[in-house]
Amino acid sequence: MAVDLNINGKAYSIDADKEMPLLWAIRDLVGLTGTKYGCGKALCGACTVHLDGASIRSCSVSVAIAAGKKITTIEGLSADGEHPVQVAWRKFNVPQCGYCQSGQIMSAVALLERIPQPTDSDIDTAMGGNICRCGTYTRIRKAIHSAANGQS
Amino acid sequence: MNSIRRISRRQFLTRTGQATGGMVLAVTLAPVFTPGNALAGPPAKSVLAPNVFVNVREDGIVEIYCYRSEMGQGIRTGLPQVIADELEADWDRISVIQAQGDEKYGDQNTDGSTSIRKHFDVLRTAGASAREMLVAAAAQLWNVPVGECEARNHAVRHRASGKRAGYGELVPHTAGIAVPEAPTFKARKDYRYIGKPMDLLDAKAMTTGTAMYGIDTVLLDMLYASIERCPAQGGLVRSFDASAARKIPGVVAVYELPKPSTPPLFNVLGGVAVLATNTWSAQQGRAALKIEWDHGVNGAYDSENYRKELVASTRNPGTLMLNRGDISKATQGAASSHSADYYAPHLSQAPMEPPAAVASVADGSCEVWACTQNPQETRDTVATTIGMDKDRVAVNVTLLGGGFGRKSKPDFAAEAAWLSKQSGRPVKVTWTREDDLRHGYFHSVSAQHVEANLDEAGMPTSWLHRTAFPSISSTFDSSNKGPSAGELTLGLLDIPYAIPNLRIEAGDAVAHVRIGWLRSVCNVYHAFALSSFADELAQKSGTDPVAYLAKLIGPRRMLDPGQDGAEYDNYGQSIETHPIDTGRIVAVLEQVAKNAGWGRKLPRGRGLGIAVHRSFLSTVGTVAEVGKDANGKLRVLELWTVIDAGTVVNPDRVTAQMEGAGIFGMSLALYGEITARDGAIVQGNFDTYPVVRMNEAPANINVQIMSVDAPPGGVGEPGVPPVAPAIANAWFAATGERLRELPFRKAGIV
Lengths: 152, 750
Fold this sequence. Notes:
The structure holds two protein chains of two kinds. Chain A has six helices and five strands. By secondary structure, chain A is an alpha+beta fold. By secondary structure, chain B is α+β, with helices and mostly antiparallel strands. Chain B has 18 helices and 29 strands. The two termini of chain B are 33 Å apart. The longest helix of chain B has 23 residues, at 120-142. In chain B, helix 2 packs parallel to helix 3 (120-142), helix 14 packs across helix 15 (545-553) and helix 15 (545-553) packs antiparallel against helix 16. Chain B folds into three domains: 38-201, Aldehyde oxidase/xanthine dehydrogenase, molybdopterin binding domain (Aldehyde Oxidoreductase, domain 4, 2-Layer Sandwich); 214-297 and 355-430, Aldehyde oxidase/xanthine dehydrogenase, molybdopterin binding domain (Aldehyde Oxidoreductase, domain 4, 2-Layer Sandwich), CATH 3.30.365; 303-348 and 441-747, Aldehyde Oxidoreductase, domain 4 (2-Layer Sandwich). At the A-B interface, helix 1, helix 3, helix 4, helix 5 and helix 6 of A face helix 5, helix 7 and helix 17 of B.
């Protein structure tokens, strides 16, 4: 069936089963590969995107639910890669393999929009759903604080 | 490890032959992985190419071929640091190109923490050769002696006259210059990039979603595959019904894969593949398959029963692997004795990007895009699988979304190639997380038994160490019955303790799943037993663990396990250039204790634990501070790590590896466990195979790199082994409860 998606301000009409998870529509049908697969069960956060500004796990939200809403992926976060969170990530050389970092950044941006000056405890709660197997957590914390303080 | 790998390599070479000839690449019409910092420019007319690693273009751009795989260790930044430094290149005028799998680059197998330690001189030579040729070209051009010219920041200068020429303009003049056989390396004091914390070259791509991993390759007309494999390793499809699968919208084709081989090698695992126009449809089609399995010889594998066999294997004398003195003589006259058993389960590497590859077989050639740690093995395996000469197979290496040893094994690329050959279209194979956790090459389950006789001061006069685990060799040799000498070199045969009578034995153990490398490999469980047992002896004797360990390691000396009859290869490098220097081990021990404020007063329910371990030619010491929370659960509050890796190329990446190793080590200490029941792996995703998350990460992971003027050691793996025993020892200090089994979750404290 035809599903209309609004991704990063652009309208896409895709032909998909309405139960198809948004993740696979974004990656395979729309062709934006910055959003990653990691678990398929909302356990790891690699697929995090924003739906009307809130962070969601796109592997576990169907295209039917996402249709008509404003979807933002890592590619749409900023035109030039200069969102303060992206800049902070580079300032601290956060990534190792980098695979989970799209999801980490999307979760961090949503956190800072909700709580502009998060505590470590706020970060633990908001970021606890994003696994980094390389173990970049301590740098992510530093980068979030730095972005919050406008230091980046 | 090397001995194991040589076995597999020979088998592949025998089967594929060594063909040479022109490469015909398949036409690709889609986004292909491009390095994050590629500099656009018109094709150069002439190029200085002194070797396969470096091209200096006429426009001044220096192209550097990164022939090692990037999986988070930072080699795409570190490798050009070494070449550019020796070349005296301007960092802003380099372009890093990811090399395909090809023997012309030498060893490309990115494992064993080898990229710097084994390639430092290769990389220095690559850069220095180009530099010397540019200097020679300038001297010839100006008709002055070479010795009066010097290279500095992308240009050659004649000191006396002040003449100066940029690298680009010198390129056409290098035509007749011979490649130097043994160029002179720069002095350490003149390094401009080596030893500096250069920023990640791929950071922009990785923070904007444009970095390309194996799972991200897209080709025109490509199909997406999902594969149902037998729950038990080596099992076969008896029959299957794909009629319901074929009705799922988007499903295009269904194929039964070739049977798994015995031994498994890196070959496909069999099963049934569903190919569709997108990943979701392929997964839906797969779920609709009805398959009857013959579970085969491993269909009864049960971790609880197997545990009894494995522990029993350590209760009787095993194969002697090292002997010093005579432990039986030490029994008489001993003041006391102590013994303990340690156990650790199978683990899965669980990289965040599961195995994924794209292959396109067309017109008698095959092109592959894969997140592989071992592109040459990928090429060999793909060629064998589809019956094609390897000179018709090209392997492109994408970024790896984590590797940790899983992606040394190219079975997933072979699946993609075989399916592309069958379907006549490009195919992407994406393993699900469940596939990854259930059908991988698992870190070995292990049991160890340790006995010591002690003198009146509580120091061991004898030490008997038995280790039993199914061997990685079993993946390459069906007749294998237990550990290889190569695996015991990983953290046991080089035991650095000054014990007069030492006996190390290996117990038999048969594999029932595919066994493979996981970050630090056997060092994980060997370090757990060695550092835990040392702490037990310290506590038993009432001695401070740091003082006890320093005494146990003893006076400074250069160990050679070969002198005690061990087959020891020192991680494939010379024991003269990379000695087991106990003085450096004690220095690390004392430094990390100092950094952690060892001996300070702690609140009730808190404890510090320490472990120090040499692996991959580096030594790492870790102190963990743990606390028992209100619910009686273990919390890792802070970690301190000190590494002696000799010469370090990028201290920021080394620090990052130590931070990451702290988290990876915590995950396996607290949670990591893969078990089998009725031949099938029980765990399936991050709910049943948890890893450490942000809310469990310590407040700080404090890292110090020792300043040591010595050849480089490994970095990616050595940080992991001391973490679990440091936490176990800290828990003992906090609570008096000894943890002898991984993961600690089994003790109910996590």
